[in-house]
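Minutes, project check-in

Agenda point 3 was the complex the collaborators sent over. CS summarized: two entities, 382 residues total, and the question is how they sit relative to each other. Sequences were read into the notes so everyone works from the same version.
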Amino acid sequence: MRERGQGAAAGGGRGRAPDRAAGPSSEAAAAGPGYGTAPDGTAGPSSGDAVPSPGADARVAGAAGEACACGGGEPAPDPRSFRGDLRRGLRAGLVTFWDLVKMMVPAYFLALLLERLGVIDVLARGAEPVMSLLGLPGEAAVPLVVGYVLNVYAALGAMQALSLSAQQVTVLAIAVLIGHNLLVEGVVLQRAGMNGVAFGVLRILAGLAAAGIANLLMGML
Amino acid sequence: MDAVEEFLGSFLLGAGDLALRMLVIVVPIMVLMEVVEGTRPFRAFVRAWARLVGRWLGMSERAAAPTVIGFLFGLAYGGSLIVRDTRRHSLRRRQVFQMSVFLSMVHAVVEDSLIFVAVGASAFWIVVYRCVWAAAVTVVLGAVAVAVVERRREQRPGPAA
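CS then shared the predicted structure for the full assembly.
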């Protein structure tokens, strides 16, 4: 699956970054022919081949490769048929799944290792005061920081090494979902003409605030 | 030796658990998106979004495309549409700022939210609450930005921006 995707990407002349959120490289793909802006300013979800979707560098590139039949092999599926949709979706899903697993499993390994070596205990004690404001144990700082630097999948991997209650998982998820992948996404915002660093700070603070408020509200309900 | 074995054992179990959850979430989403996009209801959703964003967040209809794409698929996609539309339509700076704030608070809702639901987070809190939060932050920071710009303009009257 993946080999094929990469081959097609090369054939289609589009770069493919290893990470789903590797911003600059996905720009070309996202701004590609699939997403015309309709004259009225709304997005026209057009016929479907090069439509960006979650984690879809590979998929966009793959579809482009197929369209130009550079890959040889099997014929390109009819872009409108239901079965073609299913097949493309399945392929995209598996490619994305593999990309995510490659990200999450090493993060989980590292988090588990650090936990067994007692490193996380030390970090956790330092982070305790802040984390307790959110109703979280100190060691929850680890997935949070991992998420800031890397992405939500790595954070999820690091979370797997902790044992948290359902409410704690939700609170931590809110903080991570608002602030994550700050380096790569900061570059994207920078390209949009914004101050990437300021947005990074905003996302960390807003994420912690949102998580803290959610924790309070959940306690009251 | 026992410690190493125990470590590897729990690593393999945990990693397998994680991978299985992801497989069950990611593949069906991708298939669903592939089938749904391009259908009538999806287009209706995009149009409704344009009105919603225009009325509630004070953005122009032009902001609809980048925000809906970023909201659904991710900041990289939404952000690159912002870049493109800024060139194409010369979007006002306040518009770009508000779109960026909104998208930096919430993006890739379908995928990112579901992976956390898969490990036990509450869908209501991470989707509905987060959207409300994003809208509130967008409105507040938009107003603050306008106020700051106004004040600066009063202090040193330069060439009209």
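Noted in discussion: Confidence is low (pLDDT under 50) at residues 1-74 of chain A.
Follow-up: revisit at the next meeting once the mutant set is ready.
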